[in-house]
Design goal:
2 copies of one chain form a homodimer. Chain A folds into 3 domains: 10-94, 3-Layer(aba) Sandwich (Rossmann fold), CATH 3.40.50; 123-184, ATP-grasp fold, A domain (Dna Ligase, domain 1, 2-Layer Sandwich); 190-393, 2-Layer Sandwich (D-amino Acid Aminotransferase, Chain A, domain 1), CATH 3.30.470.20. The mean pLDDT of chain A is 94. In chain A, helix 3 (81-90) links the parallel strand 4 and strand 5 (93-94). In chain A, the strands form 3 sheets. In chain A, strands 10, 11, 12, 13, 14, 15, 16, 17 and 18 form a 9-stranded antiparallel β-sheet that branches. A 5-stranded parallel β-sheet of chain A has the order 3-2-1-4-5, with helices on both faces. The first copy, chain A, contains 12 helices and 18 strands. Chain A has 395 residues and is an alpha+beta fold.
Amino acid sequence: MPTTEPAPRIAVIGGGQLARMMAQPAVALGVPLRLLAEAEGVSAAQVIPDQLVGDYHDLATLRTVTDGCSVVTFDHEHVPTEHLRALAADGVTAHPGPEALVHAQDKVVMREAMSRLGAPQPRWAVVETAADVEAFGLPCVLKVSRGGYDGKGVWVVRTPDDATEPLAAAAAARDRGVRLLAEELVDFRRELSALVARAPSGQAAAYPVVATLQVDGVCREVIAPAPDLDPGVATGAQELALRIAGELGVTGILAVELFEEVAADGTSRVLVNELAMRPHNTGHWTQDGAVTSQFENHLRAALDLPLGSPEPRARWTVMVNILGGDDPEVGRLYDGYPHALARDPRLRVHLYGKDLRPGRKVGHVNVYGDDLDDCLERARHAAAWFRGDLGDESE
Amino acid sequence: MPTTEPAPRIAVIGGGQLARMMAQPAVALGVPLRLLAEAEGVSAAQVIPDQLVGDYHDLATLRTVTDGCSVVTFDHEHVPTEHLRALAADGVTAHPGPEALVHAQDKVVMREAMSRLGAPQPRWAVVETAADVEAFGLPCVLKVSRGGYDGKGVWVVRTPDDATEPLAAAAAARDRGVRLLAEELVDFRRELSALVARAPSGQAAAYPVVATLQVDGVCREVIAPAPDLDPGVATGAQELALRIAGELGVTGILAVELFEEVAADGTSRVLVNELAMRPHNTGHWTQDGAVTSQFENHLRAALDLPLGSPEPRARWTVMVNILGGDDPEVGRLYDGYPHALARDPRLRVHLYGKDLRPGRKVGHVNVYGDDLDDCLERARHAAAWFRGDLGDESE
């Protein structure tokens, strides 16, 4: 029989809420984390004792934080892939690895890969000039290939004038390897997300496909599973996400953000919008709504352990983000608890240890149950209450 | 509308697995913990960044760790009540407070209170001499009033000779306020546990009554809810636990350990065995089996926030402890994962970051589902596998 081996230490790069929420299953699994945080006291640094403050662009810093760790994973997708190759040469394996991660870092590389795989996606092209944009056709969406997030670096272009700012932004960043991507403006019914976990062994687990509501490029609500989704389309989306994870060699969580497009005959299909290779906002519902959360399966995958079941635990689970409201002076985080918890003893709250600022994600709530309308009402009410903005819902 | 207030900091005294498991809901609630650990690197010290190593018997140390905290709570029940009164004078409230806590520290004080409340309990007396023990009647159970745990400080006495050791042990500790308690040896059907959370507001929540299997005074298994328990007895046990919590002014989690005694006519009743005032081994199933875990409700109670629902999320939840086996050289903690997780994708594992030693609690597993036999088989198999001791269950 084997003797006890100490659990391997996992380095986590980036101190945001995704790293913070990895800490909870790490406690249960008995797996120590070592954090590289951007600054003292950031979200994950509040809850992971073994930490270093430093810059993830610096290879020496990455070597220091991963010393004694067998694997490294991420709160975000921005670590330079050449540094991950250097760490691999040192014997520290990144999950996801650099060959996979580049598809989450560079949207043009991602589009090229989707074309190669024959994955359904919007028509796209790399553009450099106003003439290129006109030739592509308006309206369209322009995106910088690297560095955009939460709606930043994305422009909807309806007139030639609308293209001036993105063309200039991309030109100014060209020497940093940034290209400008034009995409067909899809007239979608809604956005969906297909989340999978994949281990280095090749084992993979697909969560139910969810519907997501994005406002100004920021995720606001998730409904799991997506209501009224054709079962064939749902299965197809899971298969697509599993195939992308396998073909790109993703390890850890992969979120495939999708557009659901409905044809004139009523049939619907999905188109790949974005890829994310880390626990994802559209998977936060799994903390309370699935047998195994995306955060636990991300850690299990990083350690090449068997994955946990992605099955839902309730008929419906709704996640609503808590964002800072428009008035920076007003907020209800901790002081929102007495009402929110008394009104709904089944409410699940997840705060990130961040100050409220307008538009900033500072937490989310999960509500599960048999009645979707009831779940939506409860989750929306609580999130609005925490941000101090009940709008017309006052009671 | 109120402006944002920072979340109050909670001091936690004691660095064992109970404090460790408070860290998970503290992350979700956005509530910072400050830990007083017995030594560097103990179970909770691995997962709570804000920590101090020191001796909880020392008031100055307690003052240092609670400085800037509004409340203090506990991993164990051993902090001297006079220190808690001193902290209260400083403005730091203990949950539970000293007036309640003494009932979990001193079994004679507890028995006196149960008599006062008219709570059903075994016949008992304080004894000092062999003659007292004979007068009480044999067989009986002798217990030191203070400092026993997990079966230590408890003796089953069947002959006058059996009383020699406990009488000597109590006499030696008399100057530390230790008395010797004699209790009727109850011929019980099984042990039950009624767990409640109670907030300073007076709000309380009762978890389903569970059946517990104790071996040599150590909790081995819990089944939630207790199978085949008369509904009237179950409700009565919950009401009893709520009444004890209210009458003693408990804040936080109270576990009332009970004997179920069956009369000749088949009717059963419960007798109070022990009280614990902290998250309790018989409540670990709530982490995966209830809407709100005992650890989260303990923190909510300490902050006087509304309590979360104690409802079960599954028909059955089984908890089995992982204990070190007899051979100190053999163990399967981290290296037990590949088999245990692959065999059961729904298994929930909680390890405490402790080395395996014979008889030591190093973790537990939770399994939930509709079929109790299936849950028991899965949980027992996994716990045996982790301790490297499948016995006759090999497959």
